[in-house]
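Folds vary. Our protein:
___
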Amino acid sequence: MDSPLKSDVMVLGAGIVGVTLALKLQDQGHQVTIVDRSEPGAATSFGNAGLIERSSVFPYAFPRDLRTLIAYALQRKPAAHYHWQALPSLLPWLGSYWRHSSPRYYPHAIAGALPLIEHSWSEHEPLINAAGAALLVNHHGWIKVWRSEESEFASLQQAEQSRGYGLNVRVLSRAELHEKEPSLASALRGGVLYPDSRQIQDPQDLTMAYVRLFGQRGGRLLRGEARSLTEDKGSWHVQTQNGPARATHVVVALGPWGEELARSLGYRLKMGVKRGYHMHFGSPATPLTHVIVDVDHGYALAPMKKGIRLTTGAEFTHRDARPTPVQLNTLEPIARELHPLGDRLDAAPWMGSRPCTADMLPVIGPAPAHKGLWFCFGHAHHGLTQAASSGRLLAEMISGRETYADPAPYRIDRF
């Protein structure tokens, strides 16, 4: 007798990538079940600046110049922090990451990211409207700001490169910057506005709106443990609190836990995590309109429903190491000089882990040695941005339809 919890596709992971993928699968006519051990959007998807970065085609590369490398090695730049004791186990991934950031290989990362970025908003927008979440969207874009000549030169150079990919970019003089954001520090020399990006002012609220839409369409969300995944007689099984769930296809969309499950099934990939932190602060009398990225210090200030969210750069350590919000504590006084902030609103800093492959591209596609097993994780800093475009791509692959983009750059056997 068939299990009452049978579906066409089972998605393991209820973060923004997994939930958005489930909606795209429903668009293709599939009956879908989502399985997660915790609440939707409560892990990595919970904490970020909320950007859907339609204007960001350059993956975060490993620094290549010696001066920057020395500064990071000596822990002198708050954009990055690392744990000495974790380095030996991280070196294989970091070495490959450094190699893929070279002038020889980095263009491949840009080319691979481009279709996912180009379709990021166009694939999210209909879902946001269908989910009744349009009020969460800030349409003003984000601004990169700088204090130094060095940062100005690098920012303007990247802005010009962005135009080469057809992106809408506007360079702001000091006066134009302060006209758009009057409360920013007068010491700022200027900025670059990326107006085509959107910002979600509560990423978890968007995930939950997507979950409600998924349920309204007949989808099922179950609490269960992905590590219980087994294959038997042409179908995949997972133990849930409601009993065993089974499906013809199963997708691993577990973010920073995806590599662990893939490895247990025999797949080796060069992947690590970059941990990040955030804290909310009370809004001043003159709130921010745009997301502000301070390129000199590597953090962002994002206007959220709860207040101003300060998000940090990358912490390099083991995924499950205890929280060490060194960067957040270092950046808070710097951020207060950039823009007036009220009191801390959170009892403790939030911490999450970004799943990062060595070549800066996600893993999207089939498992070569397992029929009906698929992967969709490793989106690094761009999980929210690429969730809908990668979800559409994989939904088309699972459905056996022509894909809107070449899936080859994301195959798991590229490693």
The longest helix spans residues 383-398. DSSP finds eleven helices and 21 strands in the chain.
